[in-house]
# Entry
Amino acid sequence: MITLYHYLTVSLLLFGIGLYGILTRRNAIGILMSIELVLNSVNLNLVAFSRFITPQVLSGQVFALFVIAVAAGEAVIGLAIVLSIYRCRNTLDPEDINLMKW
Amino acid sequence: MTPYSLAFYLISFVAVVAALFVVTMRNIFHSALCLILAFFALAGLFVLLEAEFVAVAQVLIYVGAITILILFGIMLTHRLTDKGVRQASEGRFISLIVVLVLGALISIVLRATRFPVSSEEVAHPAIPYLGKLLMTQYLWPFEVVSVLLLVALVGAIVIAAKDEVIRKKAGG
# Structure
């Protein structure tokens, strides 16, 4: 019998993997891909809660759809920023992109 | 073992392994291809959760749009994806410890929580109901999201276009 906890465990694993990717990647596009993984694990959580706790009210699915839309916008803007950084500085290593660090 | 749980374990295994490849592959192009597999597996999990519309949206938007965009981004910055470029940083062990501690904390919390699980069936014609929700209760966030997507579209063009192109179009 697959319960809510099984889905939450898968979601936790995906979240951890995505977080590890965010912390270790040295390529801004790799970081963006890891962020997409984290957002997907959040979606899995939302849909699983919606299925197991309030199956008659589909609010969880609606929120998952909103998260998908916002993630699409985030990916577009992120890649645009990455491309323009690459054009100016010829690098995508987040440690070299330090103009706004102090 | 029922077919449902077999499908669940199989799909979750594919999703987790593909996600592991996404963050560990040396060649970033290959990890983008693994990302497609992970998104497909997640769509399968949504089908198992009886959220068909979310699954279709996942395939259309993530597999069809976002990964293609990421692949284009990788190809436009191709010099960095060459084999010689290191993709992982030195802080790997600290990151691993941080992730493991966070995961342990979350699983302790999960174990201690009792969720009010309901045994009802999913609302039956789910997709019409979802459409009705989007047009009534969630109309305002829905409209805000559409404006957000428009702003993101225009913003991406302005950020990514070369300066001369924008100046020429503005007639300046």
